[in-house]
Write a structure and sequence with these properties.
Number of domains: 1
Strand order of the largest sheet: 4-1-9-10-11-12-13-14
Number of helices: 9
Bound molecules: alpha-D-ribofuranose
Shape: globular
CATH architecture: 3-Layer(aba) Sandwich
Radius of gyration: 18 Å
CATH superfamily: Ribokinase
Helix content: 25-40%
Strand content: 15-25%
Order of helices and strands: EEEHEEHEEEHEHEHEHEEEHHH
CATH class: Alpha Beta
CATH topology: UDP-N-acetylmuramoyl-L-alanine:D-glutamate ligase
Length: 293
């Protein structure tokens, strides 16, 4: 039984460092290249595990080199991958360009992630037994809906990071306890649902603000803002995922939601100071040390 169950994507990222992100029709030369584990689901599972939560991952990979890289990495991070299935499709891949300010553009080829459907009885049981379920939107939306319903039925706290943004069914929003969005995703959801306040749809809404930290919005409560420490960012890839995984781990460990927010901001601030998605995700001791400063 895991504290945190993540249902989501696993990619292998092909990361190109560039002096600037190319315009349409333009070719630029890379100044550096690396391949590393990524995918919003995997990043968030790794962040939760490294933050100290026992973590299980429900995902789909291919029977290929990237799939084996992913499986080995999950084992190294001590993540329960017994519900990761190997399907007849290539492991998901992302093409990422990162500029000198640490900003990125990302193209994702879903591959095996698109085959993560439907959930089975064992998946639903492990969701129901967990403290926190953590979801994103790089897998079929029906699977996200199904997982959130299993959390609701089992009394598990359901957290959705609505990235990459999509229109969300009302039934899914009704099954969530916490919604994590950036400002663009928040604006999209307000427009697509017609809600002026997202807290009318989900009781607790966390808005991440990049270098400015994060805000906590709760029904009939004052907004809580947690600033981020000033750091030199080299790569924002996976920072949002680090935030979500650390937040879920803190919640599963019994933290109050505003304390979990502070922990998550500290974790994300560490990740932006290093390159890559999974390689940049900090461990519990580093996060505690950053908080102590
Ligand atoms: O959030 C960052 C992630 O988005 C990358 O690791 C990439 O794989 C895409 O899923």
């Amino acid at each position: 039984m895991a504290d945190v169950v993540v249902v989501g994507s696993a990619n292998v990222d092909q990361v190109f460092r560039v002096d600037r992100i190319p315009e349409p029709g333009e070719t630029v030369l890379s100044t550096g290249f690396s391949t590393a584990r990524g995918g919003k689901g995997q990043n968030q599972a790794v962040a939760a595990a490294r933050a100290g939560a026992s973590t299980a991952f429900i995902a789909a990979i291919g029977d290929d080199g990237f799939g084996r890289l992913t499986a080995e990495g999950l084992t190294e991070d001590r993540i329960d991958s017994s519900r990761v299935r190997t399907v007849d499709a290539a492991t998901g891949t992302a093409l990422i360009a990162v500029d000198p300010r640490g900003e990125n553009t990302i193209i994702v080829e879903a591959g095996a992630n698109a085959r993560l459907a439907p959930l089975d009885a064992g998946d639903r049981e492990s969701i129901a037994e967990a403290s926190v379920l953590l979801l994103q939107l790089e897998i079929p939306l029906d699977t996200v809906v199904e997982a959130a319903a299993a959390a609701r039925a089992g009394g598990t706290t359901a957290v959705l990071n609505a990235a990459p943004i999509a229109d969300l069914p009302v039934a899914l929003l009704a099954d969530l306890d916490v919604l994590i969005v950036n400002e663009h995703e928040a604006a999209h959801l307000r427009a697509s649902t017609g809600a002026t306040e997202l807290t009318s749809l989900v009781e607790t809404v966390v808005v991440t603000l990049g270098a400015d930290g994060a805000e906590l919005h709760r029904r009939e409560r004052d907004v809580v803002r947690v600033p981020a420490p000033r750091v030199t960012a080299v790569d924002a890839t996976g920072a949002g995922d680090t935030f979500c995984g650390a937040f879920a781990a803190a919640l599963a460990g019994g933290a109050e939601v505003d304390d979990a927010l502070g922990f998550a901001v500290a974790a994300a601030s560490l990740s932006v100071q290093r390159h890559g998605a999974v390689p940049s995700i900090p461990r519990r001791a580093e996060i505690d040390a950053a908080l102590a400063r």
